[in-house]
Amino acid sequence: MATTKTRTISGRVPVEVANALEADAADLGMSPGSLLRRMLEGRYGRRTAAENLPRAAGKTPSGAALVEFE
Length: 70
Fold this sequence. Notes:
By secondary structure, the chain is an alpha+beta fold. It is built from 2 helices and 2 strands, in the order βααβ. A two-stranded antiparallel ribbon has the order 1-2.
């Protein structure tokens, strides 16, 4: 059986986004990290190469907070 490689990522999002993610996860009976992982896998899981992913501009919106989920 093949092992799936994983790594931890973090990013800055506005506090309202983090609060909404936590609320949606609670409604679904999931952890925020599990919900975020499912959303990202759904969006990028079909990509075959990392170079196909869009690169962020590197700018953080004002009022953003660092949010990390395991």
